[in-house]
Amino acid sequence: MKQSTKRRAGRGLVLVATLGAALVTATAGTAAAATPGQFTLCSKGGYDSYAAFPDSHSSTVVVPDGQCITLGISGTERYEIRIASNDETMGGGTYDPREGVTVTTVKDGFFWS
Q: How far does the signal peptide extend, from start to end residue (predicted)?
């Protein structure tokens, strides 16, 4: 695993609000807009990644760098999500199936769209 992807819990939690407009602008076009009922994970940071759903003790398959997966997850219940690489949590958030989400990993973290 690349040194740049190693993060401790306190330093690894990267949320959209802290990424700023520069990162979003720099990575524009790497992910499609969110679609209700769909969870999409795109690995674009030079490393493989996956999403874990702690409440249901489940996770996605490992998504190789440069690829995306989309899961159909519907309903009205919100889901806690952890984004990870090589069993190291990078951060997380909440998925609302009514809105859908696309999560894209980048060199120093990830962003939601």
A: 1-33
